Known about the structure:
Layout: H1 2-40, H2 43-76, H3 84-107, H4 110-131
Helix pairs in contact: 1-2, 1-3, 2-3, 2-4, 3-4
Amino acid sequence: MGDVLVIFGFLWMVAAALLGLYLGATHAAHLEKLENIAKGGTLFDYHQRLDAYKWRVTVHAHAFLFSIVIVLIGLVIHKTNFSDAATDALGYGLIAAPVLWSVGGLRHSKPLMGAGDLLLLLGIVATLAGLAKII
Length: 135
């Protein structure tokens, strides 16, 4: 499962990087649109546009950071001495975490984002406990 986590983590980094490239490519147009909205004096439209862009930036950052955590856990999971079933459950939960969070973030679904956060947190705590030989 460690190798699977490392590979998945790097693949999710690629997905996050592609989102980042898209954000970078559209940033100039985004700023121009904000400037035009600001000149029109429509504060509500300005904040809607700004918030939508910031949401995508947040999804980009979370996807990338979740990936780093997953790669790190993939590198050390063999040291936990968990059973194969427990290691697989931990791994699948960690794979589901960034997918749920990213889809939730793109759809503005707090329950999905919360589920992704919870899975990542549980994965980190379980790994820590396994490394510290608590469980």
